[in-house]
Structures are given as structure tokens and as C-alpha cells.
Amino acid sequence: MSEASDVTTPDPAAWRDGVRTGIPTLFGIGAWGLVVGVAMIKSGLTLPQALGMTLMVFAGSAQLASLPLIAAGAPIWVIFATALVVNLRFVIFSALLAPHFGMLPWYQRLHLGFVSGDISVALFLQRYPDPAPAPGKLSYLKGLLYPNWGAWQVGSIAGIFLGNAVPAEWGLGFAGTLAIICVMVPMVVSRPALCGVLVAGAVSVLAAGLPYKLGLLAAVLIGMITAMAVEELGDKFAPAARKEGQG
């Protein structure tokens, strides 16, 4: 059996393991979807438009960022640019997953990319940091992705139909934020990642007053540039530091 077959051969035990790993996050995902569903109705989208958006987009942060712009009648390029920048992290996710599943046909990779979410990708990479082929790897990923996608759609569609019936003071949106924080914090183990997160957080607060939520764009871009710069500088000066230590 080839290494690719080891990865792609269905493995029910690995699939169940992925489901069990992702279960603690599903409530937060569903609650976050509920908030986005309510937000879509409150922003003025019709029922078919809201249902179409949640089924075709599947990107909560980009949806939440673009909805105020839609409601405010912002130019279409601003809406697209905002969604694009907010979702730039999926380029990084794709680069991280490519060594694991690059052998799959393009349509399978496209499908997996469509149902991928932040938490699922993070949990998968915690389990499989090494891209070397391993039995059940694809089944484990699917066990994370499909329940995550289902929880999001159930919450989002429920929010669409509930509409204004859900009071804003319930603060359900914070449940989704907590779910992401619980996964993100253990991953901030390197100096570049920590610097990027701290700078992005500071910029998002300082630039909160910018129109069209442009502060969010600035925070994402500056945080990414900071992390890349710190990593580049670390690689540049590390050999010199080692030589001094040896001397």
C-alpha cells in the first residue's frame, strides 16, 4: 500500500477520534453561527439572501465584517477587500495543510478547503504537526470538519429564522470568541506568532474608530507583517548569536 493510500483510506476509528476531539468546540461554533444568522437579518438581508450567504460563504468573521458595510451601503470594492483580507489566514491554513494532502485531486482539496474552519485546522495541526503520511489522517480531518460545518449551519440557520427574537444582551457572540481563544492561545508558542498577535490586538484597538471597519484590515495586515518580520530577523541573527555563544 502506498503512502498516499495510508492517508486517504477511510478509517472509521480515526474519523470518530476527530469527532470526539472537536465536540467541545461545537457549542461555541453553533452560538457564533447563531449570532451571524441574526446579524444577517438585522443588516437588511432577505431570508433567501441570508440562507444563500450562510450556505455558500461559510466564513463567520468575513460575514460579520462585511455585514455592517452592506448595511451602510459601502462601495462593493471595500466589502470585497474587507472579506478578502479577513480571510487571508486561510492562505496560511492552505499552506500548512498542503504538505499533508497535496496528493489529493484538486476537487477534493477544493471541497476540504470549503468546509475548513479555524478551529478544525488548528486541532488537526496539533494532532499532526508532522506532514509525513500517516494512516487515518484524512479521516481524522473529516471528523473535525463535517461536525464543525454542521454546527455552524444549524446555528446560523436558526439565527436567521429567529431574527430579532434573540436579545443582543445575551452575548452569544462571545461564546464563539472564547472557543477560538481556547485553541489559539496554545498555538502562540513562538516569538513571531506572539509578536504578531500582540501588534494586531493593539492596532485593532487603536484603529477601532476608522470607517468601514478598516481598523480590522489594518490589524490583520500589520500583525502578519510583524510576525513575518520577526521571523525573518530571527533567522538572520540566529547564526551570529550561536557563533558568539560558541566563541
From TrEMBL:
Keywords: Cell membrane, Membrane, Transmembrane, Transmembrane helix, Transport. InterPro entries: Brnchd-chn_aa_trnsp_permease (IPR011606). The chain crosses the membrane at residues 22-41, 50-70, 76-98, 149-166, 178-208. It comes from the Bacteria. It is a multi-pass membrane protein. Its main location: membrane. It is found in: Cell membrane. The keyword ATP-binding does not apply. Belongs to the AzlC family. This is AzlC family ABC transporter permease. It comes from [Empedobacter] haloabium.
